[in-house]
């Protein structure tokens, strides 16, 4: 009888160890908001996306919102960042605080002359890697037209292997209307850049279909 | 020589003729080989089918034994229960029979005494009536001495008559009052006799049930086909009804799971996982399974089910303790679940309010929210007890599934044996068909042989009639 119990315990132990999943199931999201030029007029839409994400994210997930300006590879550009508590009630309070922080920041945002998307992505990967999230997302709320300031070096490969990079609300510029190839080339260029680094690329222009983010 | 040269018709004809000749020479060995191969397949399939059928018959026998044993067990249980009831009736009503008998005989004695006392005693005629008769015959006139005497006698007689009548009425009154006193005793006696009658008739009914069960038991012991048929059909009914109830219980468990999974994330954390499952979901599942286990043990210790012999043979003292422990456990689970259901309502309301504020919608307080809260708490409290009852259909399902599984396996084995036999026969006829095709290919030499007067020798190997498995 004792031997049988020992064998059973051993089997349970082996099965238990086998069941331990070291992979994290939490999501890590870094959202970049373009604040350059006329794009500041689109901030209301960005707010709607943030609210959608706050309503969708689960306890344990991490979320950060940062602006894209002249030099985006900086913590100063982060508007708000948070890893939600594992308890739903606390996570809800944190989400409320997050929403308030974003509202305050949005009211005081100033337009920037340049658009450093690459720097923002590099900052985003740094943040998400630190959270240890299992599913990693970088959302770029921009027209994807990158304009680097003088002296800034951004001709470097981005490390987005295992990431899903999603361009949101990629608006067409006036020049795109004249020559749509410019728009297509811009989007294609970013797609190549992300996919060559091992990431997955998505474009969501219809904000009614935000559920596609986590598909 | 190139391929087109080879394909010219003289070459083709010569090649075909050579081939036909070669096939003709090899006819008998080829026939033998084809037949041998087909027979190998046929015999292999037949033997396999026979072995499968033997397994099927053994399994059927085993199923029959299992069915009869479980039927006997069930009837024994029923008989035990009937005897227990008879015992309790005898103990309750007939154990006090001596006292009852004494009380009845006391009542009868009392009634008898009262009856005897109440018997009517007619007033005795006065002894001097003859003397009066003699005096009355003496001739007399109105004013004579005799006349006066008679008048006096008449007067005396009248007063005496009145006195006697008064005495008689008085004694009649006493008798009537005695008879009136007897009424409750009569009623009591009648009720007692009625009670005894009811008990006896109840016992008679139990005896009839026991007789019927004994007949069934005898039938099962004999192992008659009728008994097997009845038991099998009863088993089938149990299987489907208990399966249906289990399905409903599963639905209840799902509702229960949804009720406690969200608040469990408040306790164990919503972001932790075990395998690919959320720890809070697993915790909720474990609680439901523990409730089921507690329910099974409770039903077992209450002797509603009979799945664990250890609990059945347990000392009554320990069994009662187990009842208390498991019931307390269930009650605790019910209270916890009611609390969790309340918590779920709070969390859900908080999430709803957050979503509304994120969507920019003004929050609206519903005045009927307390109804859902109360309903959720009530469900949280009741569902553990409902789940606990699952032990009863579970036992029935497990018991009947043995029979059903046996029947299904027997049918599968029969089907398999049929397929094997069919494959055997198909291989046999394929062999015969191939022989026919072989002869068709070499029909020119066979035709020449027939024309030359020698009958074509058939294959030496002839098909023996195979014994059907």
Summary?
The complex is a heterodimer of chains A (215) and B (469). Chain A is α/β, with parallel strands linked by helices.
Descriptive report:
The complex is a heterodimer of chains A (215) and B (469). Chain A has 215 residues and is α/β, with parallel strands linked by helices. Chain A is 41% helix and 18% strand. Chain A has one domain: 3-Layer(aba) Sandwich (Rossmann fold), CATH 3.40.50.410. Chain A has a six-stranded mixed sheet with strand order 3-2-1-4-5-6, with helices on both faces. The model of chain A has no long low-confidence stretch (mean pLDDT 85). Chain B has 469 residues and is an all-alpha fold. Chain B has a two-stranded antiparallel ribbon with strand order 1-2. In chain B, a hairpin with a 2-residue loop joins strand 1 and strand 2 (277-278). The longest helix of chain B has 78 residues, at 145-222.
Number of helices of chain A: 6
Q: Give the strand order, joined by hyphens, for the main sheet of chain B.
A: 1-2
Q: Could you say which structural class the secondary elements and strand pairing of chain B correspond to? A: mainly alpha
> What does the radius of gyration of chain A come to?
21 Å
Chain pair sharing the greatest interface: A-B, 23 and 21 residues
The ordered string of helix (H) and strand (E) elements of chain B is HHHHHHHEEHHHHHH
β-strand percent of chain B reads under 5%
State the distance separating the first and last CA atoms of chain A: 51 Å
Count structural domains of chain B.
3
In which order are the strands of the major sheet of chain A placed?
Answer: 3-2-1-4-5-6
Quaternary structure state of the chains depicted: heterodimer
Gross geometry of chain A: globular
| Count of the separate structural domains of chain A | 1
